Input
Amino acid sequence: FRLARRTICSFSKRIQRGMHMKRRDFLGRAGAGALIGGGMLAGCSQSDAPGPAGSTAPAAAAKTIHWKMVTTWPKNFPGLGTGANNLARLIGELSGGRLQVKVFGAGELVPAMQVFDAVSQGTAELGHGAAYYWKGKTPTAQFFAAVPFGLTAQEMNAWLYHGGGLELWREVYEPFGLVPAAAGNSGVQMAGWFNREINELADLQGLKMRIPGLGGEVLQRAGGTPVQMPGGEIFTSLQSGAIDATEWVGPYNDLAFGLHKAAKYYYYPGWHEPGTTLEGLVNRAALERLPADLQSIVMNACRVVNEDMLAEYTARNKDALQTLVNEHQVDVRRLPEAVLARLRTLSEEAVAEIGGSDTLSGKVFDSFSRFRSQVEAWQDISERAYLNVRGAGA
Ligand code: CA
Output
């Protein structure tokens, strides 16, 4: 899908005229709307009208543009770091080499937790991370990564692309000079690794667990002690007993960390991260300096990576789960209903509090909550019903 500059402008002009776009068009309606909102048409002129077949857009002769991408992941970290690499590679390929992106792992150009600031200030033009890391900038950011008992990957994409979510995300990041994009998804995560059996609510009392973000907030309300620590310190802390439990991602990443060697029980489901969206962060000024076709390539490369990462996680998680169970005899357990029910109640309270923090947060909370309650009825008779009936025959 090498998109010629004039094709994009033609797309945009058609949408401006209110023409209906078919779903098979590469740009979804929301994506195309975003292009217009992002000043895509600024680069279009009369000369962009479709010319004779094979004519070359003037921009093709333009010199190479170099961008830096900072990430919150260790360089080449499976799934996440490699997802960032894929984003850079795709942008290079789709632009025919006109826009080259160099990837910096956490700590190479800036520390992991400074990615947001670095892209906001233009130190790097592009970033790859997860929105819940930026709750100190704006608590509302957490809605665009993972919400306990929130949306699955499929539902997140539906909300973002076709339910008004992406427009809200752009509004939340607008004051920071940033344009966000969904750029990866882990799917449902695991509840985590425990060295203590969880049979009832009382077992959460005093539980020292590495669990970031809103999940940690909920654990605290349930009587546990959430601990924040970067991925690299988890294994040693769990093995030494400094923490009783940890969540990380799922079988694919957890196996790579060797967490099965440091804990007895592997609990599911990941109530706290039901479909974590990773993000592409783009410096708005840098984006708007690009010709229209390159702007489209950057945003749509994020969309490709968003889909590809979920596919990769789904495929690798199933393999890694088999390895954990069959080769390492891992004890995989479901959290008890009563524990999940309590965590669900506490999650609703914690999430509603963020929604009450200011007007924009309220708007995001309302949109997210409405989407979740409305999609439930459809999921009941589609995904959930189908998976239940398929599983019954297995
Ligand atoms: Ca996690």
Observations:
- Residues 1-56 have pLDDT under 50 and may be disordered.
- The radius of gyration is 22 Å.
- The chain has 14 helices and eleven strands.
